Amino acid sequence: MNLVFLGPPGAGKGTVAQKIADHYDIPHISTGDLFRGEIKAQSSLGKKVESILKSGELVPDDLTIDLVKNRLVKDDARNGFIMDGFPRTTAQADKLLEITSIDYVINFIIPDESVIERLSGRRTCKNCGNMHHIQFMPPLKEGICDVCKGELLTRDDDRPEAISNRLQVYKNQTQPLIAYFQDKNLIKDIDAEPAPETVLERVKQVLEA
Ligand code: AP5
């Protein structure tokens, strides 16, 4: 099953993608995570994109497309994948459909107020990348990751100025992809407002219908 998860920042794409990936035994490919991995490793790509991620702007298409192409040729993506955060521009969508086919595009629908609430309360583990939310998914011990006991931090782009820029960037550059994929009859809308378990069940229902 080849899936794309589309939606504004903080819609819960990553939270649901990880569980769907485990359920269907397919990789969860998050371009944001791939870029953050490059930054952590201080690779030449990581150094190039560090300030872009911090501001909430998009990484140029050519760099992003190369990253995805290199990831999709790996063995674990042979039987399917979840693309989380890619494509984000029409050029990226054209390229993805040139490289492979897509079964469904899951469109996460959520109002701006919830995006702001979710992103400003998100805390990410410095070691393993696991996510918590101070209100909706609090860790057992404040500031400490439940999974690996690493330190929980606020992502640079989860600060207020970057959040509002990311929302604007989404509206200008990524939202037009809803119509793009609707034309191709690939879109499945999901109300992303309820609790994570409910959203997960709804996504599964769509995929198993
Ligand atoms: P990326 O990492 O993809 O960020 P994003 O799209 O902004 O998505 P997020 O990871 O912030 O949100 P999410 O929808 O996954 O929500 P989550 O599950 O974490 O991209 C980062 C940057 O990389 C971009 O700004 C850009 O610079 C660059 N980039 C990446 N891809 C690119 C591309 N294709 N082209 C160019 N540049 C690219 O949930 C958020 C919070 O809410 C968590 O705390 C979670 O615990 C909580 N939560 C989740 N679901 C629920 C729920 N149902 N109810 C209550 N709380 C919930």
Explain this structure:
A hairpin with a 5-residue loop joins strand 5 and strand 6. The chain has a domain of 113 residues: P-loop containing nucleotide triphosphate hydrolases (Rossmann fold), CATH 3.40.50.300. The protein has nine helices and eight strands. The chain has 209 residues and is of the alpha/beta class. The mean pLDDT is 96. The strands form two sheets. Strands 2-3-1-4-8 form a five-stranded parallel sheet, with helices on both faces. Strands 6-5-7 form a three-stranded antiparallel sheet. The site of BIS(adenosine)-5'-pentaphosphate has 35 residues, from helix 1, helix 2, helix 3, strand 6 and helix 9.
Describe this protein with a few key phrases.
alpha/beta; globular; 8 strands; Rossmann fold; binds BIS(adenosine)-5'-pentaphosphate; 5-stranded parallel sheet; 209 residues
